[in-house]
Amino acid sequence: MRERRLPILMYHRVQDGLVARHPYFELRTRPELFARQMQFLKDNNYQVISLEEWGNECSSRDETRPQVCITFDDGYFDFYTHALPILAEHGFGAAVFVITGRTGEVRRHGDGQDFLTWREIRELRNARITIGSHTVTHRELRQLTGNEIHNELRQSKATLEDRLGEAIRTFSYPYAFPENDREFAGFFQRLCLAEGYEVGVTTILGTAKPQSNPYMLPRLPVNSHDDMEMFQAKLAGACDWLHSVQLLYKRIKGASAGRLGRDYLSCVPADAMKSMQ
């Protein structure tokens, strides 16, 4: 029997143009290319499922069809203008991970980009779009204190739940996930559990499997450098081997990088620590 796998596609901006110095770091996908990718999923009978459905054994997944999850980080306005109409045309849902500190009733701007407003985010829920947390400030969590990490997870979730009137269960980790730092990874997972998150996605390369840690799910970055052959290869798991290269790079880089002290757990508020026992 073929092993169950879930390609979780990671998008950021659906815009024309290229801005990154290297294809790996490019965050833009041309609208025309995004439309072709969605049409490929449609033509090949992919079932687009949510992150919650992947982890729920009682969900309505059709195990006879290939499955995929579509995610967008940061909550850019171009999701609303460019990606959403294409998703709706194909009957697909997606997950959008919002940086709450960059979201307002009036449009906010940052790094030359426009972000979604609260009104637009509320509209998305009626279009098969699920909303998740992407922290308050989008800082590298491993460089913060325990208190600061806790506030990023708790405050972003609380703000989203207050604004949307629904439980927020998913989280997207900003920047590279330090999977080689087991102490931090364990701390991060316990904190997610304490705050009521059920699923977390990262920038770890690869496809998710039933044995994958639900708080550290790997994803497949997609951008304008991906032709259709590369897109199909990523869906098929042919690029999963790149995770070993990514992990080696992290270990080399991490050997000289700073890290939180071993007492960082003491920085977490007592109520969170109690629920983490």
Oligomer state equals: single chain
Average pLDDT figure: 89
SSE string, helices as H and strands as E = EEEHEHEHEEEHEHEHEEHHH
Give a quick account of the main beta sheet: strands, pairing sense, barrel closure.
8 strands, parallel
Q: How many distinct helices?
A: 9
User: Over the alpha carbons, how many angstroms does the gyration radius reach?
Assistant: 18 Å
Estimate percent helicity: 25-40%
Unreliable residue stretches: 272-277
Could you characterize what this model shows?
The protein has helices spanning 31-43, 51-55, 77-90, 118-124, 146-164, 182-195, 228-236, 242-254, 270-275; strands at residues 8-11, 13-14, 28-29, 47-48, 67-74, 94-98, 109-110, 113-114, 129-133, 170-172, 199-205, 217-221. With 277 residues, it is an alpha/beta fold. The strands form three sheets. Strands 1, 4, 5, 6, 9, 10, 11 and 12 form an eight-stranded parallel sheet that branches. Helix 1 (31-43) runs parallel beside helix 3. The longest helix is centred in the middle third of the chain and has 19 residues, at 146-164. It is globular, with a radius of gyration of 18 Å.
